[in-house]
Amino acid sequence: MIREELSPRKAALKNFGLSPQKLHLLDEDRLEPLERFSMYLQVEKDGSAHTLRSYLNDLLDFLLFLQEEDHDALSVDTILLRSYFTKISGVDFSRNKATGAGTGQSLMRTLSPRSQARKLSALKTYYRLLVRQGLLEENPVTMRAPKFYRSLPSFIPAQEMDSLLQTTEGETESSRPAELQLRDRAMIEMLYSTGMRVSELLSLSPSRVLDHNGEIVSEMRITGKGRKDRVVFIGDPARRAVAEYLVVRPRLRPKSESLFVNARGGALTDRGLREILNHYERNAGLRKRLYPHRFRHTFATDLLNDGADIRQVQEMLGHSSLSTTQIYTSVSRERLKEVYRNSHPRAKSPRETA
């Protein structure tokens, strides 16, 4: 257990979600890359809280590796990078062979190809910044990302969604204050109705969802990932839920301009929302973990299942690339297969029909 307090510089970085244990291990004179990168991700890239946390922790891991190897961030070359990825992957990148890495590693466990790909992306982005700022002539990160299996998005079945919404109602949640129940229901309805990312939902203010007559709007323009603008639509159940929440929101004594506030009146955070969803996941008896992005997956899958054009769904999700949206067509096909197997008499095996 760490007892020392973090230095002011490290404490400021910890606020981005960096591991305090790892920050303690990094020398004070090696913090500048993290400070430079955090400023860039916030101001120029307008990154989400999730992106900042992930990319900064990825850079922190690499800086700890450089510290062990007695190198600084400006003296990195291809050999050093291959050594780093060999260490975290268990694969010798110079020979493409398994090394058995993962034993005796002091900084990190062996990582999955997906995590390696994200770390590689973070380092490419950081060193691209250094080239832009004239600190390096060329980007040393030229490796290709490892291939990984892309799992299908996990959606919430209709029956479980109904159970979840019933759990947010007063008669089944009498132990939870009414204003919190109404807030929770409004958030869940909004996530499912609009397909918004959690960062987009939590950035809303009351004025954003009200028209000049004080009514909840049925559509609004938001700025999402990559500063991409799009229009999201709010269905009637979500509008009613938000209207009911706004009536009781003053009871939470808001100290923030955020639409959704916590029990102390402060702005609700990503972590706070996840804890709320964990509560309802347990009470509703859901089979799979309930995380915010599952509502976005469900939004897209349900639209495609009901015949929406994939390019329209792409627009509603705010995806820059159609290929990102196309993964939801695989989910739709799987659901169609299930309907076929369960409903068509010639789809079943002889044992099932006997």
UniProtKB/TrEMBL annotation:
CDD domains: INT_XerDC_C
SUPFAM superfamilies assigned: DNA breaking-rejoining enzymes, lambda integrase-like, N-terminal domain
One Pfam match: Phage_integrase
Record bears the keyword Nuclease: no
Keyword set, alphabetical order: Cell cycle, Cell division, Chromosome partition, Cytoplasm, DNA integration, DNA recombination, DNA-binding
Location of the active site: 197, 225, 293, 296, 319, 328 (o-(3'-phospho-dna)-tyrosine intermediate)
Subunit and partners: Forms a cyclic heterotetrameric complex composed of two molecules of XerC and two molecules of XerD.
Its biological purpose: Site-specific tyrosine recombinase, which acts by catalyzing the cutting and rejoining of the recombining DNA molecules. The XerC-XerD complex is essential to convert dimers of the bacterial chromosome into monomers to permit their segregation at cell division. It also contributes to the segregational stability of plasmids.
Protein name: Tyrosine recombinase XerC
UniProt organism field: Leptonema illini DSM 21528
Gene coding for it: xerC
